[in-house]
Amino acid sequence: MLLTVDVGNSQTVLATFDGARRLDCWRVTTQPRATADELHMLWRGLLRDTVVTGVAVCSTVPAQLPALRQLLDRLAVPVTLIGPGVRTGVPLHVDNPREVGADRVVTALAAHELYGRRPDGTGRPVVVVDFGTSTTVDAVGPEGQFLGGALAPGVEVSLDALASRAAQLRSVELTVPTQAIGKNTVAALQSGMVLGFAGLVDGLVARIAAELVAQFGAAPVVVATGGLHRLLVDSCRSIGEREPDLTVHGLRLAFERHQSSSGASGGGTSSGRP
Q: Which of 77, 88, 190, 234 has a 20 to 30 Å separation from 154 between CA atoms?
C-alpha cells in the first residue's frame, strides 16, 4: 500500500493507493511547526492498521520540511520526497525550473497521464486549475511538458484580506450566490468572491487555451482540482473535468517512476506502519 502526502499551505492531503486505485483520502489542517513525532502520530492515527509499503511526499511549506525529512528517515520502506533533483519525467519548459513548486510538477504529471492521453496513444494539452490557498492555472503540453501558467490569490485569502482592510466589510460564509446583483453586503461579497473568481478563471483559461491552440493546434482539456474546487467549479464555464485530489495521483506516478528508474528498494522491509 502506497501512502501519498501532499503538504499544502492550508491543508495536507493524505491518500493511500493499491496500485493505481485510490482507497482512502484525508484532508487535515497543515501545521507548519509540527514536529516529526506529531506528524508520526497523525499519520498512524489516520492509517490505523493499514500496511504501508512506500511513501511519496511533496511540500510547499518550507518550515515543515525538516520535520518531514526526520520522519521519512525513520521509515523502513521506500520513500520519495519530491523536490529539486528528483526525477519525475516532467520536462519543465520554464525560465527557472527550480522555482516551480513540487506540487505543480506532480499535478502536471497526473494531468497528462489521466487526461492528456487520447485512446489512440497521442497526446493533447491540458490546463489544470487548482483552487487552493492560491488559484493556479497551469498549462501542460501534449508530451507531458510543464509549460508554466498563472498564479492568483485564492478566494479565501482574498476575502480575508478584504475583510481586514475594509472597515465596513467582514468575512462571510462562501457560498454560490443565487444572482450576481447582491442586494446586501453579504450577498455582494459572495457574488464578488465566487462569481468574480469564476470570471477570473474563465478569462485566464481562455487566454491560455488560445496560446496552446496556436502552439499545438489542439484545444486543451481543462481540469479543476484543489480543496476549494467544489465551491467554484460549477460557476466556471471553461472547466470540463474535475479531480479534487489530482496531486496525490501525481505523487503515486512520481513514486513509481522514481523507484523504477533508481532501482531503489528503500530501507528494507517493515511492518509498514509509519
A: 88
